[in-house]
């Protein structure tokens, strides 16, 4: 993994957007994996700006979201499909039929999850997956104890995650769904490049485990240590519990010439 530590969220967003722009410039028909939530908002802002100025286009691409709550009304503003539309897709040019997400309202959630996994594979897989991380170390909604080889599946949300996400539901944890459908860790690990973004002290412990901890399903994101092309873009607060900050900064600076895609 390569660790980039930046002074502010906007710079994280700019660097993450550089990765996406580099991909779509080389490969306009690429498949982009999207995370919902607050972490990638600056990335999405930068991408929207680049599309609006004609520097970047997703018109030939496809998008796949990571996860969805179970049981929210299709019109619910916090349904992830609606959130990602509001935060990102409404400002860019993916054709509507090229945007895919897991179905959290299917009668048979397991069958719908399997179908979504197959859809991703049939499309040729995700080229670049944008990720956030939960304070309990989840990526997508793979909570501690999940299988590293899991495929897209229905799952149970921890109280920690529901508490963290209550801010989107009027600060009422009881309004946060208890279940989800999520891409599995095995599915996510098949994406050709992973770009995880995280900000703030609330993520510092999870980032420490991700970057310097043992690979363990207690901290699901640690599986990313096994990915050959994984990038972790964080601010100083999220980096605050890391032991080897100076080394990561040195590697980031000195690998500019072969990283080749980032302006940060
Ligand atoms: C959402 C997702 C989650 C979030 C994580 C962090 O699609 O996959 O793993 O990335 O819960 O959420 P935020 O960014 O809101 O702190």
Kindly list the characteristics that best describe this protein:
three-stranded antiparallel beta sheet, seven-stranded parallel beta sheet, 264 residues
Describe the structure in your own words:
By secondary structure, this protein is an alpha/beta fold. It is 33% helix and 16% strand. It is built from nine helices and ten strands. It has helices spanning 9-26, 41-52, 80-87, 109-122, 159-165, 185-189, 204-212, 245-254, 256-259, and strands spanning 2-6, 31-34, 62-65, 67-69, 99-100, 128-131, 153-156, 179-182, 193-198, 230-235. A seven-stranded parallel β-sheet has the order 1-10-9-6-2-3-5. The protein has a three-stranded antiparallel β-sheet with strand order 4-8-7. β2, α2 and β3 form a beta-alpha-beta unit. α1 (9-26) packs across α2. The longest helix has 18 residues, at 9-26. Residues 35-39, 66-67, 132-134, 138-140 line the site of fructose -6-phosphate.
What's the short story on this structure?
The protein has 264 residues and is of the alpha/beta class. The chain has helices spanning 9-26, 41-52, 80-87, 109-122, 159-165, 185-189, 204-212, 245-254, 256-259; strands at residues 2-6, 31-34, 62-65, 67-69, 99-100, 128-131, 153-156, 179-182, 193-198, 230-235. Helix content is 33%, strand content 16%.
């Amino acid at each position: 993994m390569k660790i980039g530590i930046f002074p502010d969220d906007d710079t994280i967003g700019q660097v993450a957007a550089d990765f996406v722009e580099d991909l779509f410039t080389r490969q306009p028909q690429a498949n982009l994996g999207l995370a919902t939530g607050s972490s990638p908002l600056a990335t999405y802002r930068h991408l929207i700006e680049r599309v609006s100025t004609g520097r970047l286009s997703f018109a030939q691409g496809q998008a796949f979201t990571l996860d969805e709550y179970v049981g929210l009304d299709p019109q619910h503003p916090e349904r992830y499909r609606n959130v990602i539309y509001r935060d990102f897709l409404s400002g860019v040019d993916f054709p509507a039929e090229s945007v895919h997400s897991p179905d959290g309202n299917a009668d048979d959630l397991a069958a719908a999850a399997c179908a979504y996994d197959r859809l991703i594979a049939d499309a040729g897989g995700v080229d670049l997956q944008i990720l956030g991380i939960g304070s309990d170390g989840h990526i997508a909604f793979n909570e501690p104890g999940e299988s590293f080889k899991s495929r897209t599946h229905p799952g149970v949300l921890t109280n920690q995650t529901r508490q963290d996400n209550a801010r989107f539901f009027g600060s009422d944890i009881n309004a946060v769904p208890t279940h989800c459908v999520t891409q599995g860790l095995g599915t996510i690990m098949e994406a050709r490049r992973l770009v995880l973004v995280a900000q703030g002290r609330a993520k510092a412990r999870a980032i420490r485990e991700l970057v310097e901890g043992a690979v363990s399903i207690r901290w699901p994101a640690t599986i990313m240590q096994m990915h050959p092309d994984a990038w972790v873009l964080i601010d100083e607060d999220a980096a605050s519990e890391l032991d080897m900050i100076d080394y990561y900064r040195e590697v980031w600076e000195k690998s500019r010439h072969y990283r080749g895609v980032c302006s940060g």
